[in-house]
Amino acid sequence: MKKIKCLFALTLAFTGSFMSCKNGSEMSKDINTKEEEIICETTSNKTETSTSGKITFSSTDLNGVILTDEIFSKNKITMLNIWATFCWPCIEEMPDLAKLNDEYKEKSFEVVGIPFDIVDNKGNLINEKKENFDLIIPYTGANYKHIIPTLDMMNGMLKDIQAVPTTIFVDSTGKQIGEAYVGSRSLEEWHKIVDELLKN
Known about the structure:
By secondary structure, the chain is α/β, with parallel strands linked by helices. The chain has 4 helices and 12 strands, in the order βββββββαβαβαβββα.
């Protein structure tokens, strides 16, 4: 995994201090959303095995719009991109995810983001993270749906997340398809992965 410099050098004033990846993966500032270390991954071949159960949730987006697992039924495949406001590789790939969402919307495919660190371990929205989120979305053009994690989600579908970004795909019933993809990828790499999934 190549070593990269991950600086929040946005002209928009993020409330956090400058951060950099250490050893090519870990952020120098540890975020303990679940009271455990979450690391920031650049492009990686690392994957995780699939789960057999269906993903269910009931939450809202940042505008208070109610979102449930029923959103999966609207598409053949939904891409769940689990990211964090402190993670530069996450932010860096979001413009490509926005393009992917637009390019495949007529093919029964949708990208949905889950900002992993936007709530505390009691499920309360963290104002500083919300302010960062409000800067990141227009900066990246990632105007697809973003779900606020709930305690049930943190204790369920998100409990084993050890690195961000982590991306999983689910079918129209909410069942995970294949492995979880750990680390960011290029638009071309995502094209290949999504095209293959849509063939089945």
